[in-house]
Amino acid sequence: MIYEERNYSFAPLNFRPFLKLFEEEGLELTRKHLGKLVAYFTTETGQLNTAVHVWAFEDMADRERRREAMWNDPEWLAYSAKVLPWILRMDNRLLKPTGFSPLK
């Protein structure tokens, strides 16, 4: 398994509207393509107005296949056109669990 941590930072006025729209439109659409949502957080310290989400994939090929399908879906493209202008910064990390990690 690999885990992808994605952090999206927003201007303060766009953060709550993003969370609302993601819950109403983006969550199920994203799950449809990316599969297993491990966690979804907002920050309370550090870079504020940031959404942190973690997705699980079998391997890099699984991730690549899923993300390609997502970016070829007209529904996803319509949704992303609404939220991408709100994002000020995107950070992404691919994480591999250790042998003793509770997440495998």
Blueprint (SSEs and pairs):
Elements: E1 2-10, H1 12-34, E2 36-42, E3 50-57, H2 60-70, H3 74-83, E4 87-95
Antiparallel strand pairs: 1-3, 1-4, 2-3
What are its keywords?
single chain; 104 residues; alpha+beta; four-stranded antiparallel sheet; globular
As laid out across the biggest beta sheet, the strand order is 2-3-1-4
Number of strand elements = 4
Q: Quote the distance from N terminus to C terminus.
A: 6 Å
Order of helices and strands: EHEEHHE
What does this structure look like?
42% of the residues lie in helices and 32% in strands. With 104 residues, it is of the alpha+beta class. Helix 1 crosses helix 2 (60-70) and helix 1 runs antiparallel to helix 3 (74-83). The longest helix is centred in the N-terminal third of the chain and has 23 residues, at 12-34. It is globular, with a radius of gyration of 14 Å. The protein starts with a strand and ends in a 9-residue tail after the last strand.
